[in-house]
Amino acid sequence: MSASMRLRLAFLGPPGSYSHQCALDRFESSVQYAEQRNISDVFRAVSPDIPFAVIPQENSVYGTVIDTYDALRSSSAGESVFVRGELTLAVKHCLVVRQGVQLDQIQRVISHEQALGQCSHFLTENLPEIPRVKVPSTSAAAQSVLYCGDDSGEPETAAICSAQCAEMFEGLDILYKDIQNEASNTTRFFILANSPDTPLPGGQREHRRQRALVRISNSPLQRHADEAPLSNRLLHTVTSTLMTTFGCAALRIDRRPSLTDVPFDDVYFVEVGDVNLPVMSAEANKSCEAEWLSRVQAGVERIRAVGGEATILGMW
Fold first, then answer.
1. Among 59, 58, 24, 31, which Cα is nearest to 45's?
2. Which of 135, 133, 157, 130 has the alpha carbon at shortest distance from 146?
3. Which of 77, 136, 170, 202 has its CA 20 to 30 Å from the CA of residue 228?
């Protein structure tokens, strides 16, 4: 397929980031890759012009990717941007420097905050007094190392990134490999799309949808800056009635501050799933999916009926 015919997919750049690697593993050459400067830009890029994106959601060591959930608070989530799938990637970090630089010459370490957190044990043991500086991505960190040290006016810098990333930028050496805290270090990514139904590129068969992400918050009519938020009531709705509300298992619950000016007014992100065993026939599969989707929608209506706001951000 020619480049002009391939749909575009946004990812956290520059090329060589874990988001880029994950997207390449799934979509290969079926899309044109459109790098973005940060996670917020990846989310905002999803549009008719760039209909797909891959965005990091959670790491098994360092936890939730805050920028992703902050983006999911926006009004476009569930209206023009939808979660359409998930991917996982085994993450193995390296410490990289300019060629010839030794460990005792390093004056700072830069990377995405997730990578810095995932390698905290190594950094504490080997570079305990060295500042750790957050940058938008691991590949941006690797690229920046090339312009530090010597007569650049910047301190001698090391970056945390993948071995594949280090190989993409000429002039870098890998000082240490596998510096992550846990050997099982894994990151989960969301696939985003500008439509809840458009088939994903890549030609892979899409299975019956069994996951949904729902955003739950207080109704705007209940929010007053001079009154305490109804957080206890909302939390009760979210936690104690999930099974009766959605009729299916809650796989995870995440929380972020809402976008209102009411103190401690929170937004909850509830991922629910159909844990029934898969069925063999296509007809039965379609019937099971329709029944499950209706349960999710009915749960959303129940939350609205008790005064909450609920939006389905995606199904996959």
1. 31
2. 157
3. 77
Is pLDDT above 60 for 86? yes
The one-character DSSP state at 278 is: P
Cα–Cα distance measured from residue 240 to residue 248, given in angstroms and rounded to the nearest whole number: 13
Structure tokens at 60: 């098994």
DSSP 3-state of 5: helix
Instruction: Give all strands (DSSP E) within the chain, no chain letters.
Output: 7-12, 31-36, 52-59, 63-64, 82-90, 94-98, 108-111, 132-134, 157-161, 172-177, 186-193, 211-218, 249-257, 266-273, 308-315
- Reference 273, options 247, 297, 299, 310; nearest CA is 247
Mean pLDDT of the chain: 90
**Side chain identity at residue 258, one-letter code:** S
Report the Cα 151 to chain-centroid distance in Å. Answer: 37
Is the pTM above the cut of 0.85? yes
| Cα distance between residue 285 and residue 207, in whole Å | 9
Comparing CA positions, the residue from 232, 218, 225, 231 lying closest to residue 303 is 218
218 three-state secondary structure: strand
pLDDT digits (tens, 9 = 90+) for 115-129: 999 999 999 999 999
Of 18, 188, 194, 172, the closest CA to residue 93 belongs to 18
**Cβ–Cβ < 8 Å for 34, 8:** yes
> Residues 226, 192: contact at Cβ < 8 Å?
no
CA distances from 168 to 39, 147, 198, 202 (A): 21, 15, 33, 24
Residues in the chain: 316
147 three-class SS: coil
Q: Does the structure show a pLDDT above 60 at 222?
A: no
User: Which pLDDT score is estimated for 237?
Assistant: 59
Tens digits of residue pLDDT in 252-305: 999 999 998 888 889 999 999 886 666 667 777 788 888 888 889 988 998 888
Peptide bond before 229: cis, by omega within 30 degrees of 0? no
How far, rounded to the nearest angstrom, does the alpha carbon of residue 81 sit from its chain's CA centroid?
A: 14
